Amino acid sequence: MALILYAAPTVIDINDLVNQKKRNKVIENSNFKKSSDLSGHERNTYIEAGTYSIACSEPKEIENINLLKFLEISDVSHNLNNNQFIIETRNRIETHMLENETYNESFIFLREKYNSLSEYKKLYSFIIMKIFRDLTGVQWLIGI
Predict the structure, then answer these.
(1) DSSP string covering 16-56, please?
(2) Phi, psi at residue 8, to the nearest 5°?
(3) What pTM does this model have?
């Protein structure tokens, strides 16, 4: 027998989610519903963990992230070799995440354990890009 669930942490802010993870409190601060109960609905809303929820299908438009604008990629990037491009991309991501009120606290926390690897610029760059992906959900493939 399989139990298929919809799981949703009861947080809005990514920093709260990371803080719950640090304290091993994600499960007790989440809602779990049988997926079969949500069939035909695009949304499931609730107020707090452990309470009932309301399934609905009213869509909500969410603005797209303009990744190229975010990274400020220009013709200058074409003059860089792949290693330089990866490191420059990491520098821009790191700068943005540190300035961003939504993500900076969690970004700093998740980056902290890798600070000792910063001398290995390419490896560190991929780690920073993975942290960015984990926090924002942005997936990409960079080709030059």
Answers:
(1) HHHHHHHTT-TGGGEEEEEGGGGTT-SEEEESSTTS-EEEE
(2) -140, 115
(3) 0.54
Residue 31 CB-density burial (10 A; 0-12 exposed, 13-18 middle, 19+ buried): buried
Cα separation, 71 vs 92, whole angstroms: 6
Look at the block and give the residue holding tokens 């499960």.
27
Average pLDDT over residues 18-32: 86
Predicted pLDDT of residue 10? 83
Q: What is the pLDDT of residues 68-113, one digit of tens each?
A: 565 555 545 556 677 888 888 899 889 989 988 888 899 999 999 9
Question: Cβ distance 11 to 28 under 8 Å?
Answer: no
Q: Phi then psi for 67, rounded to 5 degrees?
A: -60, -40
First-to-last alpha carbon distance for the chain, in angstroms, is 48
Give the DSSP per-residue string, 6-24. Answer: EEEES-SSHHHHHHHHHTT
φ/ψ of residue 7, rounded to 5:
-115, 135
* Closest residue by Cα to residue 44 from 5, 3, 6: 6
